[in-house]
Every structure is written in C-alpha cells, then in structure tokens.
Amino acid sequence: MGCCNRRCGLIAGAVFGAAVAILGGVLIPVGNKIIQETVEKEAVVEPGTTAYDTWTAVGAKVYRQFWFFDVKNPLEVVQHGSRPVLVERGPYTYRTRYLPKDNITFNPNETASFLIPFGAIFEPSMSVGPEEDEITSLNLALAGAYSLISPELHLALEILIRATNASLFQRRPVKELLWGYRDPMLKETVGLFPDYNDTSDGYYNVYTGKNDISKVGIIDMWRGSRSLRFWNNTYCDMINGTDASSFPPFLKKKEPLYFFSSDICRSVSASYEETRNLKGIEVYRYSLLPSTLASPLDNPDNKCFCSNMKTTRNCTLAGVLDISTCQEG
C-alpha cells in the first residue's frame, strides 16, 4: 500500500511538474508579449502616454564644460613678439538644456515638431572656480574684425583700433567671454556664444513611433531639411538618429546609437561599453569611439569634416573640428 502511494505520488508529481513546465512555456512568451505591447504603447510620443510626459519635460541633465588658455605674458607678445606663455584653466561647467520643449505641434505624418530652448546655469561644484574668474585671451572683436573685412580696409581698422585703445589681448571674466559683453570698438555684443541664452537651434521634426516604435524620437527633419548644408558632402551632411535626449526601446548591444548634435554640427554614434546597475535597474552605458574625432589619416570617413587645412595641419590633427560655418564664426 505504501509502495503504491509512493508510486502514485511520483506519478502525480511528474504530471504536475510537466503541467507547470507546459504552462510556463506558454505563459512566459505570453507575458513577454504583453510587456512588449505595453512598452510599445506607452513609448509612443503622444498626449496620454508615459513617454509623453517624460519627453516634454526636462530630460537627463546635460552639462557643457569649457577650458581656456590664459595668456601670462601678453605685453611681451605684443611688444617683442615673444612666444605666448599659456596656462590651461578649467573646467568651467554649465548645465544646459534644462528647459522643457516648446511650441510642440503634431503633424499628419506621425511626427512632432518642437523647439529646444537654450539656457546655461553655472555649476560651481563641477568647476575650478567661479565664472567671475578673469582670463587673459585674444581680443575676440579684434580677431573677428580682421577676418570679416577685406585687406583694403585693414588700415582703416587699425586707425579705429588706436582710437579706441583696443589691444590684441583682453582680460575678462569667463562669463563674459562665453556669453557676451559690449565691445567698445564694435559697439556690439561679442562672445563665444553671445546668442545662446533665450534662443534655440531651430525646429526639430521627430517621429512619434505611432506606427513604428523603432523610429520613436528619430529625427525626420531639422530646420525644415533632412540633411545639413555645412559640409558640402552627402555623408557628412547626414542627420542620423535622435537628438540624444532619448532613444527607441528594445536596444541591442551590438547596434550603435546614432544621434545628431547641433553643437558640433554633425551626427555621431555611440557604442555599447558595459552594463551597469542603477538603483536596481540594469542599464547600458554607451560612449563615443576614438574614431569619432580621429584625423582623416586614421578614419577616412572624417575627411569631409576637415574644411580648414591650416588649423588641422592638412587634416592630420585629431580632436579638431572647424564649426565656424554652422556656428556663424
């Protein structure tokens, strides 16, 4: 009797185990499909979805860091033609893209148009000093004036320079050098990024993912065009991927992430580096490859980005990108 009970128990256990295995084999794919369908539904950029609230609001924190070369012997350079003695100062860090998207409009072709307002907030904890630190650097107005006028007018410019006591070098706070100051010679605002705050880089048109979730966030057009007009080359003028604030779901490690950056006037890609744990959530870390800004000698694809032969020493320097065409000087 005991043997029968044991045998019956084994049979019942085997049957139950088989039933669980079959049920699990059915439920796991069904569960995965439900999860995928939910993600696809909520990842669409349209009012009422989870993604929409996140997409319209401020995204991940974006920082821009700046380094300067402080000229320590400006008088010797001007009076005796000495070689400049330079000391690197930085970083001076600003948080950017902290404002929500503006002028959002949904289009019939399942795209959304919007502006990204620009602004910069100084981050003291990530900087070597306050933005009031003074730097001795090239006089931006003077250098720009010579490049903007014809050689025939250089004499008139030199008379103006003497009349306004302008110098080849100037000492100004980091804040003014970056975001602008009133130049006494030109009577205009001069700076590296004088029009950055309270402006934008133009309208973006991106796919909402309504009919194809793999395209959500992918740029359809920027400034009304599907390609750039900066590099005079089909490859270099391509607009690829998203604006880097978000990417489509279901990423695959072997596939790079493409995104367009208006700051450097080109599209770039990032490759999978490692998997990390962020507050219990598995996340992928991506980084730019060294080949992104490599010299054309090492990466021939970068040849069309080399537009200034003098600055790049005949396109042999890495990490140098002339963006004067798209950043208006």
Automatic annotation (TrEMBL):
<keyword id="KW-0812">Transmembrane</keyword>
<dbReference type="GO" id="GO:0005901">
    <property type="term" value="C:caveola"/>
</dbReference>
<dbReference type="GO" id="GO:0006898">
    <property type="term" value="P:receptor-mediated endocytosis"/>
</dbReference>
<dbReference type="GO" id="GO:0005794">
    <property type="term" value="C:Golgi apparatus"/>
</dbReference>
<dbReference type="GO" id="GO:0005041">
    <property type="term" value="F:low-density lipoprotein particle receptor activity"/>
</dbReference>
<keyword id="KW-0564">Palmitate</keyword>
<keyword id="KW-0832">Ubl conjugation</keyword>
<feature type="disulfide bond">
    <location>
        <begin position="265"/>
        <end position="326"/>
    </location>
</feature>
<keyword id="KW-0813">Transport</keyword>
<dbReference type="InterPro" id="IPR005428">
    <property type="entry name" value="CD36/SCARB1/SNMP1"/>
</dbReference>
<keyword id="KW-1017">Isopeptide bond</keyword>
<keyword id="KW-0130">Cell adhesion</keyword>
<keyword id="KW-0325">Glycoprotein</keyword>
<dbReference type="GO" id="GO:0042953">
    <property type="term" value="P:lipoprotein transport"/>
</dbReference>
<dbReference type="Pfam" id="PF01130">
    <property type="entry name" value="CD36"/>
</dbReference>
<keyword id="KW-0333">Golgi apparatus</keyword>
<dbReference type="GO" id="GO:0034383">
    <property type="term" value="P:low-density lipoprotein particle clearance"/>
</dbReference>
<keyword id="KW-0449">Lipoprotein</keyword>
<keyword id="KW-0472">Membrane</keyword>
<feature type="transmembrane region" description="Helical">
    <location>
        <begin position="7"/>
        <end position="28"/>
    </location>
</feature>
<dbReference type="GO" id="GO:0044539">
    <property type="term" value="P:long-chain fatty acid import into cell"/>
</dbReference>
<keyword id="KW-1133">Transmembrane helix</keyword>
<comment type="similarity">
    <text>Belongs to the CD36 family.</text>
</comment>
<keyword id="KW-1015">Disulfide bond</keyword>
<keyword id="KW-0445">Lipid transport</keyword>
<keyword id="KW-0675">Receptor</keyword>
<dbReference type="GO" id="GO:0005044">
    <property type="term" value="F:scavenger receptor activity"/>
</dbReference>
<keyword id="KW-1003">Cell membrane</keyword>
<dbReference type="GO" id="GO:0016324">
    <property type="term" value="C:apical plasma membrane"/>
</dbReference>
<dbReference type="GO" id="GO:0007155">
    <property type="term" value="P:cell adhesion"/>
</dbReference>
<dbReference type="GO" id="GO:0019915">
    <property type="term" value="P:lipid storage"/>
</dbReference>
<dbReference type="GO" id="GO:0009986">
    <property type="term" value="C:cell surface"/>
</dbReference>
<dbReference type="InterPro" id="IPR002159">
    <property type="entry name" value="CD36_fam"/>
</dbReference>
<protein>
    <recommendedName>
        <fullName>Platelet glycoprotein 4</fullName>
    </recommendedName>
</protein>
<feature type="disulfide bond">
    <location>
        <begin position="306"/>
        <end position="315"/>
    </location>
</feature>
<feature type="disulfide bond">
    <location>
        <begin position="236"/>
        <end position="304"/>
    </location>
</feature>
<dbReference type="GO" id="GO:0150094">
    <property type="term" value="P:amyloid-beta clearance by cellular catabolic process"/>
</dbReference>
<dbReference type="GO" id="GO:0030169">
    <property type="term" value="F:low-density lipoprotein particle binding"/>
</dbReference>
